[in-house]
Specification:
The chain is mostly helical. The protein is built from 11 helices and 6 strands. A hairpin with a 6-residue loop joins strand 2 and strand 3. The two termini are about 20 Å apart.
């Protein structure tokens, strides 16, 4: 099983043939194999902000600079939502409350701001102040690249690749900061995700198999990137190590570990982003987390 930035590939549990799967808005996919026409279910352990950031990276490497900005901007907003969710669930768990009840309350509240980006930033600011005990200084417009984002998305500005790399590095640094602050609080999100997977699984028709996939992406590729990029450039076919070796981690938790991996010590997040982008920038048609196409 592999996972490029824009699509997934999974082996059918019935016939073992490869089935391509386009990323969707849900982490649950009810599929029918193109080869044997048998049904199965796919659960994807990857947070939406990770998917969006990888889509932006793929667009950037493919020469679609303007489209990349949209994905990077969406990744940042979804990471803000992820932080708020993790903080709320962490507080609920600490008070012995039901995670499902806490999630329901948050969902009802989020509906009030889900179409208003500025109010979502306000929710993040309050959640950050409450949890960390200090103001979120990183939310300044300059730090978020707000003027550049608005020029591209709302005013039709056509950016150079170098400008998009700068913006992506800013987004990368903010996400890095939030993941570091959250630490193991991401495990509460993982727990709810797994409960949702389990509920869907038990509702499947009898005998329907399920496959769980934790596809690699740019954040986790930082942990292994240089080794694997070198292997791919030599024509070797190697997948990233299974994250199960690190324990039951949420994708964002794995990303947080990757940010502190020894290979990245002494670098700023922006420097790590550029180094990782360089590792995988082997051609316009290549994916950021798969081997070069021959």
């Amino acid at each position: 099983m592999t996972g490029g930035p824009a699509a997934l590939e999974v082996n059918c549990p019935h016939c073992a043939q490869t089935v391509p799967v386009q990323y969707g808005d849900s982490a649950v996919y009810d599929l029918s194999c193109l080869h044997c026409e048998q049904s199965f279910c796919l659960f994807v352990r990857k947070q939406k902000f990770e998917v969006l950031f990888d889509l932006g990276t793929a667009a950037l490497l493919g020469g679609y600079a303007r489209e990349a900005v949209s994905s990077f901007a969406a990744a940042l907003e979804r990471c803000f939502e992820f932080y708020v969710r993790a903080a709320v669930l962490e507080q609920a768990a600490g008070q012995g409350e039901s995670l499902e009840d806490a999630q329901a309350r948050l969902a009802a509240t989020w509906k009030l701001v889900d179409r208003q980006s500025e109010r979502q930033v306000g929710m993040l600011a309050l959640a950050y102040l409450t949890r960390e005990g200090r103001p979120p200084d990183f939310l300044r417009p300059q730090t978020l690249g707000a003027e550049f984002r608005n020029a591209v998305i709302h005013r039709g500005y056509l950016p150079r690749r170098e400008e998009v790399e700068d913006y992506a590095a800013q987004v990368f640094e903010v996400i890095d900061h939030l993941l570091r602050e959250l630490g193991e609080a991401t495990l509460q999100v993982q727990a709810l995700d797994e409960l949702a997977f389990a509920a869907h699984f038990v509702a499947l028709p009898p005998g329907t198999p399920a496959v769980t996939l934790e596809p690699p992406g740019l954040f986790r590729a930082r942990m292994f990137g240089r080794f694997h990029a070198a292997a791919w450039n030599k024509g070797q076919s190697q997948d990233l190590p299974e994250l199960g070796a690190f324990g039951p981690l949420a994708s964002a938790q794995a990303a947080q570990r990757a940010l502190s991996a020894p290979v990245n010590q002494g670098r700023t997040p922006a420097e790590v982003f550029r180094a990782t982008l360089s590792d995988f920038g082997v051609g316009a048609a290549d994916s950021v987390d798969g081997p070069p196409r021959r």
